[in-house]
Amino acid sequence: MNIQLTADSTCDLGQYAAERNVVQMPLSVILGENSFRDGVDITPQDIFDFVGKTGTLPKTAAPSTQDYLDFFAPFVEAGKTVIHFNISSRSSSSYFYAAEAAKEFGGKVFVVDTKALSSGQGLLVMKASDLIKEGKGAEEVVGIVNSLRPLVNTSFIPDRLDYLYKGGRCSRMQMYGANLLSIHPLIEMDDGQLVPGKKYRGSMQKCISGYIDDLAAKYPAYDDTRCFITHSTADPELVAFAKEKVSERFSFKQISETVAGSVITGHCGRNTLGVLFIAK
Length: 280
Hints:
- 41% of the residues lie in helices and 24% in strands.
- It is of the alpha/beta class.
């Protein structure tokens, strides 16, 4: 079976999307009166510049049903079966629009609500690619990746809470208190929705160290195929430290670094870092 993998641009796969021939559907990022396509004509630095200048976060928008119809059609017309991976339906309406569009293709387009975002979404895309290489068909691939959704660890530690405050995810008091006391809360996906977790205190390196230790304790069994260290333009020293720490505490065959795109960056701010993988 000729299968084409596609994904919303929020999968944050970087170079790995091209290596696996994963075609991405850009979500829109709106800066003032101007709309841009995530991963196409806007960069995270544009987000930082806009927020620094205006004090407000960018808005984001999902592709429409017609956008998805136009996106899927060339693949189906070329005789391919499409498996598309959406950002969590609890974070965006893109899944519903994609699923509606898929109905028009007579079973040739499968749509997966990853219940994740960033490289948590990307992990399921990569797993699907692995399964296709093993010779599995589209329906079997979709069944397997859907069963893995609850096992994907999607979590991260933000450096500051400014962006979360501007996005309505924490109060002004929480933001000031956290920034003053160097508190960095864990943010993680729970059934497709971002929720706050443990609060770490100290420098980002100290917090990342504690975060990785806690992940190792929480997930003694995991898929050792790969792990993503995904960050929003984090300090190189912090990324290097996280890689070394993950290597010490886990036995992943591949530890890959990816940089969050403009949609994800617009919600978490600079220097946010997460360690993402599939548990068992």
